[in-house]
Predict the 3D structure of the following.
Amino acid sequence: MYSDEIAGFLKKHGIKTGDHIRVEYSGVTIEGELMPKTEVGSPDTLTVKLKSGYNVGVAFEGATVTKIAESEGPVAFPTAKLGEDKGLPKVSLIITGGTIVNKIDYKTGGVHPVITPEELLYDVPELSKIARISIRNPFSMASEDISYREWGVIANEVASELNGGARGAVVAMGTDTMHYASAALGFMLQGLNAPVVVTGAQRSSDRGSSDAFMNLICSAHIAAKSDIAEVGICMHRSSSDDECQFIRGTKARKMHSTRRDAFRPVNDSAIAYVKADGRIRYGSQHRKMSGKSKASAMTKFESKVALVTAYPNSDPELIDFYVRRGYRGIIIEGTGMGHVPVLPSNVDRSWMDYIAQAIKKGVVVGMTTQTLYGRVNTNVYSNLRKISELGVVYCEDMLPETAYVKLGWLLGNYSPKKAGEMLNKNIVGEISQRTELGEFLV
Amino acid sequence: MQDEEYYRSIGFMCGLELHQRLAVPRKLFCDCPTNIIPASGRSTASITRRQRAIAGELGTVDVSAGFEAQRGRAFIYNVAEGRSCLVEIDEEPPHRINAEAMGTVLAFAKALSMRIVDEIQPMRKGVVDGSDPSAFQRTAMVAFDGHIIVDGNRVDIPSIFLEEESCRAEATHGREITYNVEMLGVPLVEIDTSPYIRTPKEAKDIALYIGTMMRISGMVQRGIGSVRQDVNVSIRGGARVEIKGLQEIEYLDAYIDTEVKRQQELLKIRDELVARKASVGKATDLTSALKGTKVGLISSHAGKGGKALGFRLAGFSGMLGREVAPRRRLGTEISDYAKSAGVGGLIHSDEDLKGYGFSDGDIDRISKKLSLKDGDSFIIIAGGAESSRKAAGFAIERAKYALVGVPPETRGVIGDGTGTTRFLRPLPGGSRMYPETDARPIAVTKKMLSDAESSAPDIKAEEQKLVGQLKDRSLAWRVMLSPRLQTYTSIVQSAKDPTFVAHVLLQKLTELRRAGFSVDGIGDGRLTELFEAYDNGKITKQAVDEILKVLSKRDQDVSSVIEQNKLERISGIPLKELVDEARKKTDNKDQIKKEIMSKHRLNVDGSELNSYLV
C-alpha cells in the first residue's frame, strides 16, 4: 500500500492506478503508468510501469507528479467460443479457487479467478475436444482457508451435477489441503458411480510452463472416459509434462511444497496414469462404474476433532486441553508403529494417563504413524500393547490426515461407539490390508 | 565499408544490447554455483516440458509467442547434479536476489553516469523459445538515463538491467529441443544503447568501450559465451531486425553491414515483385500427383503417411534464387521459415529440379495441379502430415512478405565468418512483462549508492595505471581493450616485467592459437606460475613459448613442465663452464655462441651469454 502521504496526494489530484503519469525529479523525467503498490514494496516510492514494460520505483519525496492521461481501464481477459459437440460427454468443472484457476493481470501482477468457461477454454482449448464442460463456481478460496463447510458445499455440488447428467466431475482447487478435501469427498459422496477428479496446479497459469494445463486436460480425460467410480487426485506424475497420475483421494498426500509432482500415493499405487493425448493406463484395483445410481452427499462433519503429533518431550496436556474444550475425537500421529511416550524419565510427560482420561470421557482416540508409510501395530512392543489396551483405535495403514477427516465425518454422522468401530474398517479404500513392495516412495 | 554520410542517407538505425555474465560465485535467485565450464557437466536427469502461449497484456497472444506455440515443440532439459536446483527447473520459487550481483550492476550504472531507480522491481519477461523452463526470464531495470563518450561522441545509455542467463541449447531434433540448464540463472548485466548509432564501426567501438569498462571492474566472467551482443538494425523502408547472440566483437560491424545489404536486397526484390504484380497461392496437396516420384526428399515421407504440399508463386520466376546475403537466397529465407516447423527444408523452382530427381512428368503434374504459368515459380514442402502443413503455412506467410519488404525478425548468427544470419522467429511485439511476485522489490539505500560510487570502474584511471606500468600508451590501450585484461591485472601484481607479460598475453598467445594450440584453456594460475619462474630466473624467454605449448595440451604445474622438458635456465657458473668448454675448440665468439645456442637454445639467455664472451 502507498503511504498516507502518497495516497492523499493521488486522491487530491485525481490520479488512479493505471493512469499515465509524468514524474520529474532531480533533473530527470520519466513517464509511465502508475501501478498499485504491493504489500512487499516500499510505501514511499511510486511504482511506475515504463513503456518498455519494466516497473521501477521512484522516490515520491521531492518529485513533481502530473497526470498526463487517463487509464485505459482494466484489460478484459480473452475468451474462446464454447464447443457444443453433442457427441462428447458432459463434464462438470467445479472451480473453488487456487493457483489452477487464477489468471494474472499482466499489468499489475494482480491475481483474478477465472469464472467463465470461455476464459478457461481460451487458455486450454483442448478441453472442448474432450468434453462439453460446464463450470460451477460455488466459492473462491485459498486452500489453507477451506474447511469442512466447503468440503460439504463441494460434495453437494458434485452430487447435484452428477445427478443432473454430468458423466464425471472435475474439482479445481488449491493444492495445500487438497488431500484433506479429496478424502472428505470420498467419505461424503454416497452412491458414487462416476469419476470425481480433484486437481490443481503448483505453478500459476500466467506462465507458459504452468502445470495447470496438462493437469486440467488429464483430469478431463479421466472424468470423460475412465470407468473409475471413485474420488481421486489427478496431477503430474513426474517433473516432466508427459503424464499425470490419478491417486485415490484417501491415499494421496502432498509430499513437496513446490514441485508439480508433489502428490504421491502413500501405501497404495496410483489408480491410473493418463497422458495429455487421453491414453489411460490403469494401475491399482479400483471401484468401477456400473449400472445407474443416484449420488448423494452426507456432509455432516464434527469439527471438534484434533490431529496431534507425539514427539520426544511433547507435553501430553495437549490431550487434556482438547478434552476440556469438548473435543469428541483425537487422531494421534504416533512415532513408528504407533507409539507415544509411555515411561519417560520425566514422568509428567507420559501420555498414558491423559489418553486414558480422554477415552473414559467418551473421546474417540485413533492412532496413525508419522512415518506416513507403513502400518501401525498393537503387538510388537509392550508399549504398543499398553497404549492399545487403553482403547486407542489403531488405524492400520491409513494416512493421519485421512484418519482425521474420517473421524470428523464419522462423528458427524454416527454415534461415538459406532464411529470408533468404523474408524479402522475400510470404507472407500482408505485402508488396505496388503502393502506391496512397490508402494514405497513412489 | 561506407562512411557516416552514406549510412545517414539510407536511414540506418542501430542499437546494441550488451549482455555480460557477472563473476559472482552464486546464481541470481538461488545458491547454485556459477563457475561452470560449459559442457563439462554430466547430466544426471532429464525432464520434458511443453509450454504454451499465454495471452499478454493486450489480451492477445504475441505474434512471436504464438509462432513458437504453433510449432508445438517439446523441450528437454538436462539437469546436472550440483549445478542446478529446483529453482532453475521451475519447481521452486526464487530465493533472495544476489546482493553481490546487484552491487556490481549498480557500480556499472555509476560508471555509465546513470540515474539509479529508488526501488528495483524484479519482473518476468516472457520467453517463448523454451530457453527458460519457467517460460519467462527474471529481469530488473536498475538504472536509466546514462551516457558515455566514445571517440568524442556522446552515446546515450537509456537502461541497464540485472537479469538471469538462459539455458544453453544442446540439440534440435525435429520439434524437440534439448537444453542444458547449468548456466540458467547466472547473473547477467544487460546494457542498452540508444538506437542512434551512426555506423557499423561506431557500434563496434561502443561495444568495445563498454566491454572494457566492465572488464576493468574485474567483476565479469570471461571465456566462451560470457559476453554477447544483440544488435538491432534497420534502414529506411526496411524493418527492425534483431541479430541475437553475437559473441565475437571482431565481426560486429560485418554482421551489421551484411544485414543492411540484406534489407536493401529484399527491398529491391519487393519492388520488382510489385512491378510484376506477383502473388502467392494457397497450399495444395501434391502427394498423389507425386506418387512414385524419384525425388528422395518427397518419396522418403510418402510411405509414412507424410505429405507433399506445394504452392504457386505467381510472377516470382528467378526471384527465389536471388542472393540477399553471401550464400543466402530469397529461397533460403523462405526455407528457414519452413524448417522452423520441423521439416528438413523445401524445394523451389529456381533450383536444379532435375538434380533433385524430378522427372518431366513430375514437373508437368505439379504445373497442372498448381496452375503454373510462364514467369511463375513454385515451392514444394514434404514431411509428416502435420509438420508439412505447418511448414507450408509459415513458408507462404514469408513468401507473401516478399511483396511487402523486410519482415521484422529475430535472427541468429551463422558462425561461418561471412557476417550472415538466419531467421529464428518473428520479432516479439513488445515483451510481455509483469512483476515477479515471488521476489521482493529492492529499496536502494544510501549505502548501496555510495558503494556503487566507490567501486565504479573508471576507464581513465585504468588507462593511467596501465601507462604507468607499460610506459607505452598504445600498448596500454591494447591491453585494456583485450579480453585478457583481467589476466594481465592479476599477473602483474607479482610480475617484474609488465611489458613482457603484455607481450606474451597479447601477441604470443594469439600466435600460438593461430598455430593450432588451444591456449584459451590455460588458467590464470598457471600463467602466474610461468611468469614467476621467469622472474626468478628459472627459465628463459624462449622457454616461455615451449611451456605454453605444453600447457595448452595438458594442465600441470609449471615447475614440473620445466623439469620434464629440461627447460631449466643455464646461468652463471654453469654457463661460464659451457663457454670455457667451447673456447677449447675455437676462439671465434660467433662460433662459440652458435655452438652453445644450437644445443641449449631454450635454456640460455642470449644477452647473458654475450656478457661472458666480451
Observations:
- Chain B has four domains: 4-272+431-435, 279-402, 458-564, 573-613.
- Chain B has 21 helices and 24 strands.
